[in-house]
């Protein structure tokens, strides 16, 4: 089998890259739904259907395990698919397939707590709040998944989210550093104004944003810690595979890159991040 990695576009390559580093012998198939990107402004039901279709494509390609390297899909579609669609799909196909997301490992990294942990509500006064900024798509922000799930685990962490609907189209379109820096600086300024100061830490809550992490670092105060989703996702997948040895990730080191959009070479911004030429096949 291979491990599938799914995103609406090229942002999931940041997760894919780290997974390949962590599991160099495993087989990976990456699918970018560029024909329908970005997902952030789409209705919830549409995001669920598009995500399901992407998973089916990867299952059809031989993947038994799919990682949703997309915050919007993870926030809006993942639980629905796991609870209402996957059980029937498994029965119909006789295959033990599964779909994992990236929000759970990100929240574990942000809180330092396992997903199963929930804080006791004792009414103790919080002496010092840790202000956590989340930069994400409009869909992820509207789900309030980070606010809700982090509050369950850490009462001393206050989450403020900033929707950045312009960033994914800019990154997918290969925008230059000046244009990207202007957009990121505006979002950091907007969030900081709403909080009353800059955040203590930040989550880049869209995998596309990892491609321009250096621009976020420059826009935030020096030394502001960034919580990196690719690393936390790789760590979580390693733990998952240890607990489920029946999922075999392949051993040939095969890599395939598929797109529902225009096949061929990706833009210069993506290739600079990737470290060389990168071409997608038609899905």
Q: Could you walk me through the main structural features you see in this protein, from its secondary elements to its overall organization?
A:
By secondary structure, the protein is of the alpha/beta class. It folds into 2 domains: 2-102 and 230-282, Rossmann fold (3-Layer(aba) Sandwich), CATH 3.40.50.1860; 105-228, Rossmann fold (3-Layer(aba) Sandwich). The chain has helices spanning 13-22, 44-60, 71-76, 78-93, 103-111, 138-143, 145-153, 167-172, 177-195, 213-219, 229-243, 268-274, and strands spanning 2-7, 28-32, 63-68, 98-100, 130-136, 157-163, 201-205, 226-227, 255-259, 264-265, 279-282. A 7-stranded mixed beta sheet has the order 4-3-1-2-9-11-10, sandwiched between helices. Helix 5 packs across helix 11. The longest helix has 19 residues, at 177-195. The radius of gyration is 18 Å and the shape is globular. InterPro entries: Asp/Glu/hydantoin_racemase, Asp/Glu_race, Asp/Glu_racemase_AS_1, Glu_race. It comes from Phenylobacterium deserti. Keywords: Cell shape, Cell wall biogenesis/degradation, Isomerase, Peptidoglycan synthesis. Belongs to the aspartate/glutamate racemases family. It is an enzyme of class 5 (isomerase).
List the helices and strands and how they pair.
Blueprint (H helix, E strand, L loop, with lengths): L1 E6 L5 H10 L5 E5 L11 H17 L2 E6 L2 H6 L1 H16 L4 E3 L2 H9 L18 E7 L1 H6 L1 H9 L3 E7 L3 H6 L4 H19 L5 E5 L7 H7 L6 E2 L1 H15 L11 E5 L4 E2 L2 H7 L4 E4 L1
Parallel strand pairs: 1-2, 1-3, 2-9, 3-4, 5-6, 5-7, 7-8, 9-11
Antiparallel strand pairs: 10-11
Helix pairs in contact: 1-11, 5-7, 5-11
């Amino acid at each position: 089998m291979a491990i599938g990695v799914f995103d609406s576009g090229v942002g999931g390559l940041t997760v894919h890259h780290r997974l390949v580093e962590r599991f160099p012998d495993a087989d990976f198939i990456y699918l970018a739904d560029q024909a329908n990107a970005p997902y952030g402004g789409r209705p919830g039901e549409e995001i669920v259907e598009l995500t399901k279709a992407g998973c089916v494509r990867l299952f059809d390609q031989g993947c038994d395990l799919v990682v949703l390297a997309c915050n919007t899909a993870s926030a809006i579609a993942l639980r629905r698919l796991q609870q209402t669609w996957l059980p029937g799909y498994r029965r119909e196909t006789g295959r033990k397939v599964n779909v994992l997301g990236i929000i759970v490992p990100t929240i574990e990294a942000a809180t330092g707590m396992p997903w199963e942990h929930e804080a006791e509500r004792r009414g103790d006064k919080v002496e010092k709040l840790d202000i956590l900024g989340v930069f994400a798509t409009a869909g992820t922000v509207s789900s309030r998944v980070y606010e809700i799930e982090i509050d369950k685990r850490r009462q001393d962490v206050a989450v403020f989210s900033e929707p950045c609907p312009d960033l994914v189209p800019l990154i997918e379109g290969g925008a230059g550093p000046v244009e990207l820096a202007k957009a990121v600086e505006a979002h950091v300024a907007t969030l900081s104004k709403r909080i009353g100061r800059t955040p203590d830490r930040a989550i880049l809550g869209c995998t596309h944003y990892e491609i321009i992490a250096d621009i976020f670092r420059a826009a935030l105060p020096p030394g502001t810690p960034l919580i990196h989703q690719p690393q936390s996702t790789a760590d979580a997948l390693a733990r998952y595979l240890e607990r489920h040895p029946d999922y075999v990730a392949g051993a040939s080191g095969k890599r395939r890159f598929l797109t529902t959009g225009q096949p061929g070479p990706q833009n210069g911004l993506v290739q600079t991040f990737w470290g060389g030429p990168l071409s997608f096949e038609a899905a």
